[in-house]
Every structure is written in structure tokens, then in C-alpha cells.
Design a protein that fits this description.
Layout: H1 9-12, E1 13-26, E2 30-37, E3 41-47, E4 66-73, E5 78-87, H2 91-94, H3 96-112, H4 120-134, H5 139-154, E6 175-178, E7 183-185, H6 187-190, E8 197-199, H7 201-212, H8 215-218, H9 225-243, H10 249-263
Parallel strand pairs: 3-5
Antiparallel strand pairs: 1-2, 1-4, 2-3, 4-5, 6-7, 6-8
């Protein structure tokens, strides 16, 4: 929306709460910000002079920061006129593993969303997930739960209770998962399907539990490192199919894990 000199001031300037997804240098001293806001969904805005040493806004506009922002409509783009931190999620910047997990959450939301208006449920999911990661409690579960809920909110809910091909109820045996079919395939339907991957019954039970539970209830699921590895690989396969491209942050997370394993 272009700036209109005749527009009432209450419409030219407005306040939002948002999480900073990323930023890039803009001009000599400015930054272009990608934001995901509670009130208007995904937005772009420019922070003028924020790269100057004396800028008061700079510390409030770092990636992962949740901030209260005053925005004004410029001629071609929104401008940040005021910024105040609501939550800096400092633990995410102090631990490489948590940095990797939170970067993955941000990248996933960024890739799946466009500037298409308010989505308060998705904003709440983002804030809750960053809060869970910052608490350093069960980061693997927090991220897996985020993936399942994100898919629900965006209309990509995988079929986990009935075969996505013949629609028969899934029996308590190992199955297949097909990204192209959008869910689980029974052993009869899954055999020979191009791209279909095996999924163990324990992994399927965890995904079902996440899909129908609150986060508190999801934490009650009994998991192992091996089981999380299987679920993570399966989700990466499905998400990559939906996005039609790979994600950058999983490779970083794998490197961090390898380094951590060497140090033990």
C-alpha cells in the first residue's frame, strides 16, 4: 500500500507485536526486516539508521526477538519508528544447539508463509515454541510438535489414522509414509509406491499423539534418540516435498550434533 498524504494519521501509523525472522542490510545505515506479527501476519519493514553505532532500536530488532513495534506507512514500504523488546530469548543465542533449533523453526515458518494477513494461531505457535526452546526443556519434542502443528494450521495435516490410498484403518504394524499421498499407506498399498518410506509403528504413534494432543500432553510420550531420529528424517522428507526444496538449517544442526558427540 502506497503512502497517501491525505490518509488519517491513525492509519498511517500503527502498533504491532512481532517476532523478527531475519534482516538484511539496506542502503548505507538501514536494515530491511522480515517480521511475523500477531496482528497482520508476515510483513516487511525498514528500520532507518539502525546500523549506526548510536541507534537505540538496533538491540530490539535482532532475529528471534519478540518486540512491540510502532510502524509508519512509507511511500513503498513500512518504516519502524519505535521498537521495544518483549522477549529477547537470550538462551537461544548462547547455545549452538538451541540456536540451530530456533533457526530451523524460523526458517520453516518463513518458507511456508507469505504476506497474506493475520494468523494469530500461527503467531502463538511461534512464540510458544521459541519460549519452550529458550527454557532448554526437551528441544527435540518442542520442534517436532511445532512441525505437526504448523502443518495443521497451514492445511497440510498428514493422514495418520487411515491409509491415504485405500482409506482402511491403519493396523498396529509397521507402515509406509508417502509425501505425494499426504500420509500413511498400509503395507498393501505402500509396496512399490515411488518415494514411499517405511515408518515404524512406534514412530507413527508418536506423530498421532502429537497431532491430537496439547503440548503438555505431548510431553508424556515415551521417546528415544533413535525414535526421534526416525521422526525427524520422515518430517524432513515430507516438508521438503511440500516446499519443493530443501531447508538450510538441518545441515547446521547435524554439524552441531557431530561436534557435541566428539566432545563427549
Amino acid at each position: 500500500m502506497l503512502y497517501n498524504p491525505g490518509m488519517p494519521s491513525r492509519e498511517r501509523s500503527f502498533r504491532i507485536e512481532a517476532v523478527v525472522l531475519s534482516h538484511a542490510d539496506w542502503g548505507e545505515a538501514d536494515r530491511l526486516l522480515w517480521l511475523f506479527s500477531r496482528e497482520q501476519g508476515k510483513l516487511r519493514a525498514v528500520a532507518k539508521g539502525v546500523r549506526k553505532l548510536r541507534s537505540r532500536k538496533a538491540g530490539h530488532l535482532e532475529p528471534f526477538t519478540r518486540a512491540s513495534l510502532q510502524l509508519a506507512r512509507g511511500r513503498e514500504i513500512l518504516l519502524v519508528t519505535q521498537a521495544e523488546t518483549v522477549d529477547a530469548y537470550l538462551p537461544l543465542r548462547e547455545d549452538l544447539s538451541l540456536l540451530g533449533y530456533s533457526s530451523y523453526v524460523i526458517e520453516l515458518l518463513d518458507r511456508f508463509t507469505y504476506e497474506e494477513g493475520e494468523n494469530r494461531a500461527l503467531y502463538r505457535l511461534l512464540v510458544d515454541t521459541l519460549t519452550r526452546l529458550a527454557s532448554q526443556h526437551e528441544p527435540n519434542q518442542a520442534v517436532r510438535y511445532f512441525e505437526i502443528r504448523l502443518l495443521d494450521l497451514l492445511g497440510f495435516r498428514p493422514q495418520l489414522f487411515n491409509c491415504a490410498r485405500c482409506e482402511n484403518e491403519i493396523k498396529p504394524v509397521d507402515q509406509f509414509f508417502s509425501a505425494a499421498h499426504g500420509g500413511v499407506l498400509c503395507p498393501n498399498c505402500g509396496q512399490g509406491v515411488i518415494g514411499a518410506r517405511p515408518i515404524s509403528m512406534p514412530a507413527l504413534k508418536i506423530l498421532r499423539h502429537y497431532q491430537r494432543s496439547s503440548y503438555t500432553e505431548a510431553l508424556r510420550a515415551r521417546t528415544t534418540t533413535e525414535l526421534f531420529g526416525e521422526i525427524e528424517a520422515l518430517m524432513q522428507y515430507y516438508l521438503t516435498y511440500l516446499l519443493e526444496r530443501g531447508l538450510n538449517t538441518p545441515a547446521f544442526l547435524r554439524r552441531v550434533r557431530r561436534e557435541a558427540a566428539r566432545e563427549k
